[in-house]
Amino acid sequence: MTINLESLKGTYDRYPDKWETWKKLIETVEETAEEFGFRQIDPPSIERQELWTEKKEDSVTDEMYAFTDKGDNEITLIPEATPGRARLMQKRKDLKTPVKWYSTGKRWRYEDVTKGRDREFRQTDIDIFGIESVEADAEIIAAAASIFQKLGLDNRVEFKINDRKLLESILEAHGIEKTEEAMKVVDDKEKMTKEEFLEDLTDRGLTREDAEQVDQLTDISGPILENIEELRKKAPEEVQESVDRMESLGEALESYGVASMCRFDLSIVRGLAYYTGLVFEAFDSEGELRALFGGGRYDELVGTFGDREVPAVGFAFGYSPTIELLKKEDRYPLSEVETDVYVLSVSESVRDVALDYATTLREEGLSVETDLTGRSFGQQLGYADDMNAKRVLIIGERDLENDEVTMKHMDSGEEEALDKDEVVEHLEKEDFL
Ligand code: HAM
Asked: How far, in Å, from the CA of 41 to the mean position of ligand 1?
C-alpha cells in the first residue's frame, strides 16, 4: 500500500525550523496574557455540537468538523473556544468574578483554504468574565496591543473597533428595514467594491435608496475620540449610552497609550452571532491579510447555558495571519532552532566523561546533545553545525591527560583550552548560562 504523505488540505506539517517562529510567537502572546494576570486553563478540543447549534447559527456552524461518535454522541472538533469557555463558567458557579482566562489550542473549520486561512489552526483566547464595565474592554484591547508592541509591529497594525448595538440602532433610526440582513453584508464591506456592496444589499431585499444609506452611514471611521460627536448626532436617544461608553473606551485606550493603534469603524460587525456590543478586529495597515485577531463582548452567551448570567469580553489571537505579516515585514523567522552545546567525544574511551559534562550542563539549564552513534570527529562537528549548536565542547583523551578540554565557538570558529574542572565557571563568566 502506498500512503499519501501530504498532510490534509489546510493542515500543515511544521518541522522544527518552521515551528520555532510559531513557538516564539505563542510564547510572546502567552507571556503578555500572564503579565496582565490571566490564568491558563486547559479545556477540551472536542465538545458537544449543541454548544454551537443551540444558539443563532452563524458562519462557524456550517464549517464544523462535526460527527457522531461510537457512543452516538453528536460532537465536534472545536471551531473556536468561546462557547466552551462559557460552558466552563456556567458549570463552576462557585468561581468568583472577575475570572481572567487564557489558553492556546488548535481549532478546526472547514474553510476555503487561502493565505492565513487554514482548516486546522491555532488561537490563543484571552477573556475576562464577570465585568460589565468598559474597564474590562479597555484591558482586553490593551493586552492585544501589547502583543504587537512586543513584536515591534504596532505601527503595522490597526485595531478596528465598533459596537454592534450602535450600528443596529443607527440603521434602524434611519428607517432601514431588514437591519439584520444589512449587517451581514456590512460585515463583508471591506472585501467588496461599492457596487458589489450595494448589489448584495438589494439582493437581500433592501431598496436601492436604503442600500445607499447603509453605505453612507457605515462610512464613519477614524480615531475613536474624533468620531464621538458625529456618532452622537447619528445615534438615536436610546443608544446615547453606547456612545458614552465608546467615548470612555477611547479615553481609557489613551491612558494605556495604545489609542494610536485603534480606530473606530462602524462597518465592523463580525460573523459570530453571540456578540452583544463591542466588537473589534485587527488588520495589517495595508489591509492585505485576513484579520490578525478578533473579539468582542458576549454578555449573554454564558447565560444561554444555564441560570448564571455572566458578562464577558475577550478575543482570540489568530497565528496564521500574524505569521504572514512577519513574512511581509521581513521579520521571519523570528528565531532559529539552536542547541546550546554539543559535547563531542573524540574517542569511545571518553564517552562516559562526555556524558558527565552533558548532564552537568543540562542541570545548568542548557540544551545539550552528545554523540549517539560513535561517529567520527568530522561527522560529529558537521552534525553540531547542522543542529545550529552555539558551542562544541570537545573531549579528547590527550586533553584530559593534561586536565583540559577544548571549547569551540561555532560562530567564529575560535577554540580555547579550558581547565577540565572549570567549564561551568567559564560559561558563567561568558554570560552563556
Ligand atoms: P474569529 O474572528 O472567528 O473569532 O477568529 C479569531 C481569529 O482567529 C481571526 O481573526 C483569525 O486571525 C484566526 N482565525 C479564524 N479562522 C481561521 C482560519 N480558518 N485559519 C487561520 N486563522 C483563523 C473567534 O474565534 C472568537 N471565538 C474570538 C473570541 C474570543 N471572542 C471572544 N473571545
From this structure: 18
